[in-house]
Amino acid sequence: MDDVIEEELTIVAEREPRRRPALELEALRQPVRRLTHRGPLTLPLHATLDEAVRFMRDRHVGCVLLVDGERLAGIFTERDLLLKVESADRLRPVSEFMTADPDVLKPEAPIVYALNLMSVGGHRHVPLVDDAHRPVGVVSMRDVVHYLVAFFLKEVLTLPPDPMRAEEWRERDGA
After folding, report:
1. CA dihedral over 42, 46, 51, 56, signed as positive or negative
2. What strands lie across the sheet with 99-100, from one edge to the other?
3. Rounded to whole angstroms, how far apart are CA atoms 125 and 100?
4. Where do the domains of the chain lie, and which CATH numbers do they carry?
5. 41-55 tens-digit pLDDT
6. Which residues contact 47 (CB under 8 A, 6 or more apart)?
7. Is 51 exposed, middle or buried (0-12, 13-18, 19+ CB in 10 A)?
């Protein structure tokens, strides 16, 4: 008898439309470490600005963490490059242009804290550090966007290639 009930429940479950995950507060309470899968990209404090820019360009990243030994000392971002640097500064230490003692999070911190730092603090990159203040990663705006897109995957991936023709696309959708 239990087998029959189990089989009926399976059939009913298969007939129900699949529900996509809803974006709820619980999703934002997940640990921030879920947002990134790459380790920290670091340079020593004595690295030159030229080295830092080349390092970021070669790795296609928007920031580099600067360390004093193993401890996080600062962050240098593409925004720092645009707003603080003149062309004659290439050989000066990048530490002169970094943001010293940046806001950081531990990997266990909820994602909502990263969103707060990005929204209220205006940060595009948030370093992740361990208990000894050693860098263990960086969370970027891109990481947050990718996380949020997963909740609306079908809607995002099935958009027409030209937003100016979206109305025409909606009319054809059922064809």
Report:
1. positive
2. 42-44, 63-68, 71-77, 99-100
3. 14
4. 21-159 (3.10.580.10)
5. 999 999 999 999 999
6. 55, 66, 93, 94, 95
7. middle
**Residue 76 pairs with which residues in a beta bridge?**
64
Half-sphere CA count of 117, side-chain side, radius 13 A: 22
Phi, psi torsion values for 129, nearest 5 degrees = -130, 155
Question: Two tokens at 110?
Answer: 């909820």
Distance CA 94, CA 33 (A): 27
Q: Are 108 and 126 in contact (CB under 8 A)?
A: no
Tokens linked to 164: 């100016």
Query: What confidence category does residue 64 fall into, taking pLDDT thresholds of 50, 70 and 90?
Result: very high
Within 60-140, residue ranges assigned H as helices are 78-84, 111-119
Confidence (pLDDT) at 137:
95
pLDDT at residue 138 greater than cutoff 50 = yes
Q: Can you read off the two tokens belonging to residue 168? A: 């025409």
